[in-house]
Design goal:
five-stranded parallel beta sheet, five-stranded mixed beta sheet, 11 helices, S-adenosyl-L-methionine
Length: about 270
């Protein structure tokens, strides 16, 4: 059995009892950075064989993992902080296990972007987590343009050395919107700083950041600027029946069909 185990993103007290039991019962632990994970394991007095599993060796690590599964071993998979797979290694392991029909599960826990969304106060009923911006600037801009009209909260990870450049790209792609920078989550210097994209973020940049951006404002449907008769007639000219055009126009305007019915009477004569 393979267990993907979420680990603390700062405060070690956030590890769950189930996560500790899983790590103690594992035969082998796959780690993003064995040196980093060793500090966590030593703190909780857990001693297990460790196998490196990072973005540069995940294919070969998947082969080792499947071999251990065939031997009947219990394997735990952890990353440096937070939940494996979420902007961390682990996705290829999940795919390999799924394709092989092997058993695996998640021991849930801390996740930085979820914590930041809660702390930001931005709407959480609709959001898109987009992780780190990667590639050349032109590739980043093309990527961001795809989300310019998304009306939910947009969430990004950003390293301290990239924060200013990332915010500049966000401002170019989305214009001047409300934003929020959350950093050092669960740590002593945790901070939540609202700002405007064009204003940028002041101060020295330290720690890992989660950047949250307000969603796009809904745009007025240009058809709603027409008169009721013109709106219905537009759809009729597209080949719809009067009944279909009435239904489409009512949906656009957010009204009932009965509210627009009087504007179709002349069409029936």
């Amino acid at each position: 059995m393979v267990y993907f185990v979420a680990t603390p993103i700062g405060n070690l007290g956030d590890i769950s009892l189930r996560a500790l039991d899983t790590l103690r019962e594992a035969d082998v632990i796959f780690c993003e950075d064995t040196r980093h994970s060793l500090k966590l394991l030593n703190y909780f007095e857990i001693k297990k064989p460790l196998v490196a599993c990072h973005k540069f060796n995940e294919f070969s690590a998947a082969e080792k993992l499947l071999a251990l599964v065939k031997e009947g071993k219990n394997v735990a998979v952890v990353t440096d902080a937070g939940t494996p797979v979420i902007s961390d290694p682990g996705n290829l392991l999940v795919q390999a296990l799924r394709d092989a029909g092997a058993e695996y599960t998640l021991i849930p826990g801390a996740c930085a972007f979820v914590a930041a969304l809660v702390l930001s106060g931005f709407p959480a009923d609709k959001f898109a987590f987009l992780g780190f911006l990667r590639g050349k600037n032109s590739e980043k801009k093309d990527f961001l343009r795809r989300y310019a009209e998304f009306d939910g909260t947009l969430i990004f990870y950003s390293a301290p050395q990239d924060v200013d450049a990332d915010i500049k790209l966000l401002a170019e792609a989305f214009g001047d919107r409300d934003a929020c920078a959350v950093r050092e989550i669960t740590k002593i210097h945790e901070s939540v700083e609202p700002f405007r994209l064009l204003q940028g973020l002041s101060g020295e940049k330290r720690g890992e950041y989660v950047l949250l951006v307000q969603g796009a404002e809904p745009r007025e449907n240009p058809l709603n600027l027409l008169s009721e008769e013109e709106h219905i007639d537009f759809y009729v000219r597209q080949g719809m029946s009067v009944k279909e055009a009435l239904k489409a126009a009512a949906k656009d305007r957010g009204v009932s069909k009965s509210d627009l019915y009087k504007f179709t009477i002349k069409e029936k004569k």
